[in-house]
Amino acid sequence: MFFCFNIILVCVFCLSLLIISLIIPWGFLSYKASQLTEKMKEMQKFFGFKVTGKLDKETMEMMKKPRCGVPDVAAYSTFEGKPKWQTNKLTYRIVNYTPDMSVAEVDESMEKALQVWAKVTPLKFTCINRGTADIMISFGTRYHGDAYPFDGPQGTLAHAFAPSPAIGGDAHFDDDEFFTFRSSKGFVLFLVAAHEFGHSLGLSHSNVRGALMFPTYSFTDPDRFSLPSDDIRGIQSLYGKRMILKSTKVSAAVHVRSSGKTLLFIDKVYYRCVKCCIINKSP
């Protein structure tokens, strides 16, 4: 009887540890016991589950999946107050590197991840090698210098901070994870980084399955990746659309030497170009 009682205690203790290990990455430990049921309901509603307020099988399976460490909200969504950068020209710096990949692979992954957002907005990103950038990128484990420690392999893959002074915009990656260039035998750094940079630019999580800003990781061939429409609508709600001058006949063009700018006249509209316009000569 004593032996069975001990087994029951051990099982209850192990179950408690499992539950705690699941709820820590989702930020539930910061709530009082009386609030947990409501927060559980919010999460279930976010993912489109049956709303019970209980840690049922479906909810537990979702909580086990590798994910971003930023708390969930709703769909496409921005952070409270809609924080955004006040300039379209942003800098980034890779402070250190993961041993899982070559330096060149990390550099390419980060640049490609930022271009995901640049292709659909007026944003431009420049890499710097020293000093403080708008987006500081680093790899770390467990307690790594902010108030949001990582949890070891599998759980939280990374987190990033919304635009603001100091740590705002920075992206941190859990070096206890195994990151890859394009292999599914690990976590593709480009995919994780593209998601985190969405946070760096002001987007929160989306509850649209298939969206880049959905909170859990899902493998996609990085060479075939295309930014989903939900994410495009979200980022353009903050920064607007990227202006693309379609190939057309130019009525007239004037280059102003003093400013280095070129004015293009197309019908009754004129465009101002700065170091970006090449006009092919007609035969």
Automatic annotation (TrEMBL):
Ca(2+) 3 binds at D151, G152, D174, E177. Zn(2+) 2 binds at C68, H195, H199, H205, M213. Can bind about 5 Ca(2+) ions per subunit. Ca(2+) 1 binds at D100, D175, E177. Residues 81-241 form the Peptidase metallopeptidase domain. Zn(2+) 1 binds at H144, D146, H159, H172. It is found in: Secreted, Extracellular space, Extracellular matrix. The active site is at E196. One of its GO terms (cellular component) is extracellular matrix. Pfam families: Peptidase_M10, PG_binding_1. A motif (Cysteine switch) lies at residues 66-73. One of its GO terms (molecular function) is metalloendopeptidase activity. One of its GO terms (biological process) is extracellular matrix organization. It comes from the Eukaryota. Its main location: secreted. Keywords: Calcium, Collagen degradation, Disulfide bond, Extracellular matrix, Hydrolase, Membrane, Metal-binding, Metalloprotease, Protease, Secreted, Signal, Transmembrane, Transmembrane helix, Zinc, Zymogen. Ca(2+) 2 binds at D134, G168, D170. CDD domains: ZnMc_MMP. The chain crosses the membrane at residues 6-31. Its cofactor is Ca(2+); Zn(2+). PANTHER family: INTERSTITIAL COLLAGENASE, MATRIX METALLOPROTEINASE. This is Collagenase 3-like. The lineage of its organism: Eukaryota, Metazoa, Chordata, Craniata, Vertebrata.
